[in-house]
Amino acid sequence: MKNLGYYNGRFDELDKMTVPFNDRVCFFGDGVYDATYSRNYKIYALDDHIDRFYNSAGLLDVNLKLPKDEMKKLLRDMVQKVDTGDLFVYWQATRGTQIRNHSFDPKIEANIWIVLKPAQIKDVNKRLKVITAEDTRFLHCNIKTLNLLPSVMASQKAERMGCDETIFHRGGRVTECAHSNVSILKDGKFVTAPTDHFILPGITRMHIIKMCKKLLIPVDETPFSVDDIFTADEVIVSSAGQLCMGVSEVDGRPVGGKALETLKKIQDALLEEFYEETGR
């Protein structure tokens, strides 16, 4: 198959899949999701993504009955059914199927969705252009929820302006991007926002911290400001699909380019891990 969809035990090519009208995701975006990439039919950082997925489900009281090991096996088995092993691997759990009502029956079981489509991670050597915007999203950013309209609109605005991503900020503090994390390199340190309720605890962010410690690059998990972005040695955007990419422009102003060697060390370490885990 060129691509693949899955819904509660049924699977087929994506354009042949349907879901019940009363799935709560249709009315409320009521559920959680996670995503990563596979290469050579091997899924990158799957354990970490599954842990976050189940944590998000627990925080929203989604009744996810499927055990973690069975969920991982399901994803690995599904990847094997697609023609190419280089895939965007997406899965979600919606609260369940129920006649529309704001309150819900806590006993209803989650619906499991999987989407697989051919894709590869981006070229980490490309430098990005980004913009900034006041972070007006809900205050539960640590949950990877399906309620993504603010991020959708911010991403659309960046695209209209010929940019790749939007950096959110709240009260002067940088939080994260519309669909990725943002960090900086400053005075030899990797500086990244703490994992409180203002940011999603990014899996790639976590792996960057691990790599920095291996490379003896100091890590500082403290808030930083928009002003700090413009004085940083490097501005880094990270996610499962782009790993660790440097930023060249923010709001039309040049940034970064002062710690290219350190950035390259981190990028190379992450790529090496990605290649090792997904098979050479």
The coarse overall form would be globular
Please name the CATH architecture of the largest domain: Alpha-Beta Barrel
What's the rounded overall pLDDT mean?
96
SSE series:
EEHEEHHEEEHEEEEHEHEEEH
The CATH superfamily of the largest domain appears as D-amino Acid Aminotransferase, subunit A, domain 2
CATH class descriptor of the largest domain: Alpha Beta
Task: Predict the CATH topology of the largest domain.
Answer: D-amino Acid Aminotransferase, Chain A, domain 2
Q: Structural class, judged by helices and strands?
A: alpha+beta
Helix content: 25-40%
Number of strands: 15
User: Runs with pLDDT <50, length 5+?
Assistant: none
Kindly estimate the percentage of residues that lie in beta strands according to DSSP: 25-35%
Query: Helical stretch count?
Result: 7
What gyration radius follows from the Cα positions, in whole Å? 19 Å
Biggest sheet record? 9 strands, mixed
- Assembly category: single chain
* Number of domains as seen in the coordinates: 2
Describe this structure in words.
The chain is α+β, with helices and mostly antiparallel strands and 280 residues long. The chain has helices spanning 25-28, 46-59, 68-79, 149-160, 203-214, 226-231, 260-278, and strands at 4-7, 10-12, 31-39, 42-43, 87-94, 111-118, 128-134, 165-170, 173-177, 181-186, 189-192, 219-220, 234-239, 243-250, 253-254. The strands form two sheets. Strands 7, 8, 9, 10, 11, 12, 13, 14 and 15 form a nine-stranded mixed beta sheet that branches. A hairpin with a 3-residue loop joins strand 13 (234-239) and strand 14 (243-250). It is globular, with a radius of gyration of 19 Å. It starts with a strand and ends with a helix. The model has no long low-confidence stretch (mean pLDDT 96).
